[in-house]
Amino acid sequence: MKEIKFRGQRVDNKQWVHGFYFKTPLTDEATNSKPEDGWSFLSGRERHCISQGSCVYEVIPETVGQYINITDINNNEYCEGDIYKYENPNYGYGGNAKEFKYRIFENIEDLYFDDSFEWDMKHGEIIGNKFDNLEEIR
After folding, report:
1. Omega cis (within 30) before 89
2. Where are the domains of the chain?
3. What confidence tier does 61 reach under pLDDT thresholds 50, 70, 90?
4. 15: number of CA atoms within 13 Å, CB side?
5. DSSP 76
6. Does residue 110 contact residue 117 with C-beta atoms inside 8 Å?
7. pTM listed for this prediction
8. Whose CA is closest to 128, among 10, 13, 16?
9. Which H or E element spans position 120?
């Protein structure tokens, strides 16, 4: 079974982390731990976190995206929020002209409602994400 992996931007320094996504507050019913016992996640404030390796990072909720089992032409795995470019098959028909289109993979549901998404993604190239690179394609 393939592990479900997420990406998100850290709250403290805006660096990207990849791994298991979860929300807090965490509770430990077996030991009745309380925030004053030193468990910082038990403050009652909801946090969005990604566990990468042996570290847990708080991430900006709006930047969290799930990876899917589709890769681009360079074998990079797509994640929600990625921007990719693909060749417009209807442009320059019969000639050598090329035109590229840009598309944002917003969320997994897009794949269920538009069959062209998956084809475009497999034949496209990830060029960034909507959080870091959106202005570059406008």
Report:
1. no
2. 6-62, 70-137
3. very high
4. 7
5. P
6. yes
7. 0.76
8. 16
9. helix 115-122
Which two three-digit tokens encode residue 30?
């077996």
Surface-to-core class of residue 112, CB atoms within 10 Å of its CB (0-12 exposed, 13-18 middle, 19+ buried): exposed
The single residue listed with the structure tokens 């209807």 is: 90
Type of residue at 6: F
User: In this structure, which amino acid lies at residue 105?
Assistant: F
Query: DSSP assignment, residue 36?
Result: G
pLDDT at position 45? 66
Which residue shows structure tokens 């925030």?
A: 35
Structure tokens, 46: 């909801």
3-class secondary-structure state, position 23 = strand
- How many CA atoms are closer than 13 Å to the CA of 12, on its beta-carbon side? 5
CA dist., res. 73 & res. 52, Å (int):
26
Residue 95 DSSP class? S
